[in-house]
UniProtKB/TrEMBL annotation:
GO terms for molecular function: (S)-2-(5-amino-1-(5-phospho-D-ribosyl)imidazole-4-carboxamido) succinate lyase (fumarate-forming) activity; N6-(1,2-dicarboxyethyl)AMP AMP-lyase (fumarate-forming) activity. PANTHER family: ADENYLOSUCCINATE LYASE (PTHR43172). One of its GO terms (cellular component) is cytosol. SUPFAM superfamilies: L-aspartase-like. It comes from marine sediment metagenome. InterPro entries: Fumarase/histidase_N, L-Aspartase-like. Keywords: Lyase. This is Fumarate lyase N-terminal domain-containing protein. One of its GO terms (biological process) is 'de novo' AMP biosynthetic process.
């Protein structure tokens, strides 16, 4: 995005951190559905929900 045309709300919405956070939300929802179907153990879901996005670590 061109800096001078970017409003703060739009910059946050399109940031890498927000993008990966939304992807993580989708992955967690899929894992919840899989646990209901028996694809993954139900006990795994609470541990998966503890996952956090860490851009610095991802860029290493």
């Amino acid at each position: 995005m061109i800096e001078r045309y970017s409003r703060p709300q739009m910059k946050r919405a399109w940031s890498d951190e927000n993008k990966f956070a939304k992807w993580l939300e989708v992955e967690i929802a899929v894992c919840e559905a899989w646990s209901e179907l028996g694809v993954i153990p139900r006990e795994a879901v609470p541990k998966i929900k503890l996952a956090r996005v860490n851009l610095k670590r991802m860029e290493e």
